[in-house]
Design brief:
The chain has about 260 residues and is an alpha/beta fold. Helices cover about 50% and strands about 15% of the residues. Helix 4 packs parallel to helix 5.
């Protein structure tokens, strides 16, 4: 059975990092998977992936060291089961509000006795030493993350973290800010909720995660105790690099005029 090295590091108390990939390019995902990130987050919720391109991308990770994670479109159990059958080594489930929804994600992601995941998937025998090896050992190698994105979810975060099988609890800061502002609160209130999640992680021992956009923000969150850091995306990297290229091109093109 393939070892989930990102999960190993997280369980050892280390920080793990990786980017979000939103473009539906298996070749791009393959390149990212070999660049030294602990994990590669393929985003099916807000990204451009189809089931076909996602399946193709996950095949590229069989020979890559980075752990492939998929953020699914919602909490539907069949979809969670499906991406694991494609070869994902972890799943990120959005918009989990309470322990009951966290338990439902666990049931979908793990085989009995922890869950009720159904056995199947033609790629699983390549991840394990045959399908039976995978079935016997997958529960120890799957990394399940759930996202807290509202004030209600943060109020329930300690109970969510205590659900057996939850590998980490991830703040979705953008959606949390939308919820905070809809309730008439501000950025300072948002930050207090973030700190509540960090403190709950310290009490329960369940890692907390954060989606960051800069080195400075990443350092701040790590100092607070966050250990799963999604650092930027392919879209952010590409547009940033292309803007820099455009500015350089305008500079030398203008100099020749």
């Amino acid at each position: 059975m393939r070892r989930n090295e990102a999960l190993r590091k997280l369980r050892a108390g280390q920080v793990i990092t990786g980017p979000m990939v939103v473009y539906d390019s298996p070749s791009l995902a393959e390149q990212v998977a070999h660049l030294g990130f602990d994990f590669t987050w393929l985003d099916w919720q807000h990204g451009q992936w189809s089931e076909h391109t996602l399946n193709d991308a996950l095949a590229r990770f069989l020979a890559a060291p980075s752990t492939p994670l998929v953020r699914v479109k919602g909490q539907e159990p069949g979809t969670i089961n499906r991406v694991l059958d494609m070869g994902a080594m972890g799943v990120i489930v959005p918009y989990v509000q309470d322990a009951g929804q966290a338990q439902a994600a666990v049931r979908a992601a793990y085989y009995p006795p922890l869950g009720i995941r159904s056995g199947g998937g033609v790629r699983l025998g390549l991840i394990g030493d045959g399908a039976q090896d995978y079935y016997a050992n997958a529960n120890d190698e799957i990394l399940l993350g759930v996202m807290v994105e509202t004030e209600q979810a943060v109020a329930n975060v300690e109970e969510i973290m205590r659900v057996p099988g939850i590998g980490f609890v991830l703040i979705g800061p953008g959606d949390l800010m939308i919820d905070v502002r809809a309730s008439g609160h501000d950025a300072a209130f948002h930050e207090r909720l973030v700190e509540q999640v960090a403190q709950a992680s310290k009490r329960t021992g369940t890692p907390a995660g954060y989606v960051t956009q800069s080195k400075e923000e990443s350092r701040t969150r790590v100092e607070q105790g966050f250990r799963f850091i999604n650092y930027r995306s392919d879209n952010a990297a590409l547009t940033g690099a292309l803007r820099e290229m455009a500015a350089e091109a305008q500079e030398w093109a203008g100099a020749t005029g």
